Amino acid sequence: MVIHESGEDYLETILLIEKRNHIVRSVDVATEMGFSKPSVSRAMGILKSAGLIVMDESGRITLTQEGRQKARGIYERHTAIAEFLEKKLGVSKETALKDACRIEHDLSQETYSKICNANKE
After folding, report:
1. What is the mean pLDDT of residues 15-43?
2. Residue ranges with strand state E in the chain
3. Predicted confidence (pLDDT) at residue 66 exceeds the cutoff of 80
4. pTM exceeds 0.70 for this model
5. Which is more confident, 53 or 5?
6. Angstrom distances, CA of residue 14 to CA of 43, 53, 86
7. How confident is the model at residue 41 (pLDDT cuts 50, 70, 90)?
8. Is the dihedral angle over the CA atoms 12, 81, 1, 71 positive or is it negative?
9. CB of 87 within 8 A of CB of 25?
10. Distance between CA atoms of 65 and 4, rounded to whole angstroms?
11. How far apart are CA 15 and CA 29, in angstroms?
């Protein structure tokens, strides 16, 4: 199953909330992303069907191994792009983070690799 840009954003958000709070519920995701609870519920259903998350009877969301791997990859791309924009181009941190979120989904592997190499210099 192909996960679209919004699904990637949800996975990344779940990972970040989990790092911060250790427990993730739909309401946490809704609050973090500024989306309605029904929208988040629908998205969680899609991610669950794709085998990327599991939800227990209390509503706790946990990333599966595949979901965690995807979420980490998305987060790493986001971080690398933001770092490049901020440190190599002089973009403000706030703008770099926002732009990285937009760029990360459509960036080619070739360009991403070049950004990673530039960050190491």
Report:
1. 95
2. 53-55, 61-63
3. yes
4. yes
5. 53
6. 12, 9, 25
7. very high
8. negative
9. no
10. 19
11. 10
